[in-house]
Amino acid sequence: MHILVETLGFSLVTAAILAMGSVGLTLQFGVTNYPNFAFGDFMTVGIYICWLFAHDLPLWLAIVLGSLVVGAVALLSAEFVMGPFVRKKSSPLILLIVTFGLSFIINNIILAIWGAQSKELPMASEAPLHLGWFLFTPSQLVVIAGSVLVMLAVHLMLSRSPIGKAMRAVSDNSELAAVSGIAEAPIVRLTWLLTGVLAGLGGIALAYSTASFDPALGETFLYVFFASVILGGVGKPYGAMLGAIVIGLASGFTGLVLPQYGKDAAFLVLIIVLLFRPEGIIRSAGRSH
Amino acid sequence: MSVVITFGSSVIMYVIVYMILTLGLNLQYGFTGIVNFTYYTFVAVGAYIAGVTALGRPQPGTGELYILGANLPFPIPILLAGLAAGALGGALALVVFRRLRSDYLAIVTLAAGTVALDVATNSNSIFGGSNGIFGIPTPLAGVLGVPLQNSYMVMIPIGLVVLAICWWISHSIRNSPYGRILRSIRDNPDVAEAFGHRVLRHQLVMMLVGCFMAGVGGALTIEFVSAMSPSGWQAVETFIVWAAVIVGGSGNNLGAALGALIMQGVIIQGTLFLPSFGNQELVPAIRALAIGLLVILVLYFRPQGLIPEKRRFYDHLLPGRRGEARPEAIPTPPEGG
């Protein structure tokens, strides 16, 4: 019984990490209407920048800096790499190949600068805390609390602020949004900034949970984030949060039985969703066709 | 001198294999519009299957483990490799394609590849785990009495024959009515479906044929270099095949072959002599960076690739070609009706 509760706790940590990344990924996918295959490398950039500063600066500052740098990288890539193709009205297929190319470029810049050997974020050894039957390390609690705060902030932004409402409008139907006077370009830029910052936060949390990291970490987990996005329905941040919880639980309990295949449970979930509910668990017009 | 011959012939061999790979991907992406982001997984499957069917049983005590160990003679391992890769590609298509949008296809195939890599790395008893399999003999070397370091003398002719067959298959598909159906699926799957073509079935067939070529290419690779391990088929390898097809020109054999020549012959093998500096990964990373940039630049400035696909027009078959009045254009109905 203990082990099940502990696994539940561990799954919640995974879900918290997944939620931060996949909310960013799904917002961008919905607003720009093409998936970003460089998202995994955005996460890796965040990890390396955080690692770079974490030795000299307080950790929270390193995390903030790391996320902001990813935000800038996302903004610049959207402007100068994907932007020209968007202005040329290239098809979503060409755009997704472009992001695949961007992923390749970013990954190799990281390799060229820092090499392939794995590194570790500085981590104080900490005693696990018993909360009832749950067992968490303090940093895991920070990850969960941080993720809840981020989700709350995203929720408030989307539901209360005019920017968030505009973002949802563009995501739902960009032509209708344009007709009702919403300028698309600034909303798209803001979305990229946001997806970058969230990629940074998710990536850094991921690196803490895997203990060590290398340039391939983000790419290896990319499809797990995509699985939460598709499970929740593309462009639906609340769906992605729910998707993150489902994938977190699935991989946590799979890991209990098959320790090496925890995250591969995401693939199974992905296939089941695509077979039976390609529009995601929250129903609206089917977007996968 | 012999060093030059050995290096030169290995470059030729790599280019031949790569041409087979680009022809296969071109069938999927260039002809049919299938976004297979895990193409190289099928190359690896082919290599592994060819390896374990050509090798004998694993020796106890060496710690080497793998399935089968059938010790089959040439050319059965190459055929089995193609069949296994093709069957796997078909199975993937059967389970997940379901008329998905291309971006969903990309995500699913990418995920499938990552999982396959996880399985091959973590289960030691299938394909040797993270060590992979090694010591695969050159086919016919014993029969012909060719020393090991001259395996290219056997492999280049075999490779050329396989390439010729793949070229012929691809060429025939392209120039047949079937090729026209595939192009219609690529250009607009909904319209193709509306005209009664079974999009899913044709995509499935192209996954079979394309992945068959990938598997055969993998088999030739492992018989030439004699080893395969998970580090040899990371996601980046798939991107390089894609890069070759896009740069050379998708939708036609010549373009795909030119892409293979540029990517393998010039960019990858041609830069092996560059002096190494900085950290160990610096030179390969810069080379990869150049490939990524090249793809994005080609997509922007020459999206059809260096050798564009020849567009065919059939309006000479329509009435109104010879001086007669053309039929009135059908007015397009207003949107959203």
Summarize the structure.
With 289 residues, chain A is mainly alpha-helical. Chain A is built from eleven helices and four strands; from the N terminus they run ααααβββααααβααα. Chain A has a single domain, classed as ABC transporter involved in vitamin B12 uptake, BtuC (Orthogonal Bundle), CATH 1.10.3470.
Q: Which CATH-level-2 architecture of chain A?
A: Orthogonal Bundle
Which strand order does the major sheet of chain B show? Answer: 1-2
Q: Shape of chain B from CA axes? A: globular
> Which class of chain A in CATH terms?
Mainly Alpha
Secondary structure tally: strands of chain A? 4
CATH topology of chain A: ABC transporter involved in vitamin B12 uptake, BtuC
What are the secondary-structure elements of chain A, in order, as H or E?
A: HHHHEEEHHHHEHHH
Strand content of chain A: under 5%
How many domains, in number, for the residues of chain A? Answer: 1
Mean pLDDT value of chain B: 84
Class per helix and strand makeup of chain B: mainly alpha
Main sheet of chain A? 2 strands, antiparallel
How many individual β-strands of chain B? 2
How would you describe the overall organization of this protein?
The complex is a heterodimer of chains A (289) and B (337). Chain A contains 11 helices and 4 strands, in the order H-H-H-H-E-E-E-H-H-H-H-E-H-H-H. Chain A has one domain (2-112, 136-276): ABC transporter involved in vitamin B12 uptake, BtuC, CATH 1.10.3470. In chain A, the strands form 2 sheets. Chain A has a two-stranded antiparallel ribbon. Chain A has helices at 2-32, 39-54, 59-87, 92-114, 138-160, 162-172, 174-179, 184-210, 217-232, 237-257, 265-276, and strands at residues 119-120, 129-131, 134-136, 212-213. The longest helix of chain A is centred in the first third of the chain and has 31 residues, at 2-32. Chain A is mainly alpha-helical. Chain B contains 13 helices and 2 strands. In chain B, helix 1 packs across helix 8, helix 1 runs antiparallel to helix 10 (199-225) and helix 11 crosses helix 12. The longest helix of chain B is centred in the N-terminal third of the chain and has 31 residues, at 2-32. The termini of chain B are far apart. The model of chain B has no long low-confidence stretch (mean pLDDT 84). The interface between A and B is large, with 48 and 48 residues.
